[in-house]
Amino acid sequence: MTGHTREACPELVLLGQIILLLRTERRMPQAVLARRAMLSESTVQRLEYGQLRPRRSTLVWVANALDPDCAAMIREVLIAAAGGAGALADDGTWAARRRDAAGRLMASGQVPLPSGIERRIEAHRQAAELSRRAFAIMDRPGGLDNARQLDLALCLMEQSDEARKAAGPGSISVGEGRYRVLHW
Q1: Cα torsion for 147, 151, 153, 154, to the nearest 10°?
Q2: Is the CB of residue 176 less than 8 Å from the CB of residue 95?
Q3: What is the Cα–Cα distance from 78 to 48, expressed in whole angstroms?
């Protein structure tokens, strides 16, 4: 059986119970899980009631939405509860479309990232802001002629460099189930 059904599918009831348990443990309404996992609320309901055989990509995003720091472990539990990878519905082209949408939603903060990645992104933002402030000081009329302003700009640039070093490599690419760091 693949796809949708109005009746609960016995082999999918366990999957639904696990999703419901993980969601309620986190005091997360279905609407929040749906938004974070890029699903409709009715899809979350059908998953929880065992009425929908999920795609692998659906379980990947549900796991990430439930707990981005433990997404890999949750994903494996959900796949096993669904009957294993062979029992899942075919992703077809859906995974690529969801991946494209995920990039936009992660960039806007609508889909959660693991806390370690969020901290690195915030550190990079702070470093960029410190650099911006330093250049703004130097761009002021007479900014390059004023030793006090140059000292302040230098201090900001040093803080920016320290923040960049603490943040780690420059850009982060998020893929299904794993995070790859790309240097610039």
Answers
A1: 130
A2: yes
A3: 12
Distance CA(110)–CA(142), nearest Å, equals 43
Strands (E), the chain: 3-4, 52-53, 171-175, 178-182
Tens digit of each residue's pLDDT, the chain (184 residues): 445 556 778 879 999 999 999 999 999 999 999 998 989 999 999 999 999 989 888 999 999 999 988 888 999 999 999 988 888 887 776 666 666 676 667 667 777 777 777 788 788 888 889 999 999 988 888 878 888 888 999 999 999 999 888 887 765 554 444 444 333 3
Residue 156 burial by Cβ neighbours in a 10 Å radius (0-12, 13-18, 19+): buried
Torsion from C-alpha of 60, 64, 69, 70, nearest 10 degrees = -50
Provide the 10 A C-beta neighbour count for residue 157.
18
Q: How far apart, in whole angstroms, are the C-alpha atoms of residue 125 and residue 117?
A: 12
Helix (H) or strand (E) holding 157: helix 147-167
Cα separation, 105 vs 39, in Å, equals 12
b/e per residue, 160-172, with b = 16+ CB within 10 A?
A: beebbeebeeeeb
Distance of alpha carbon 125 from alpha carbon 121, whole angstroms:
6
> What are the backbone angles phi and psi of residue 52, rounded to the nearest 5°?
-140, 125
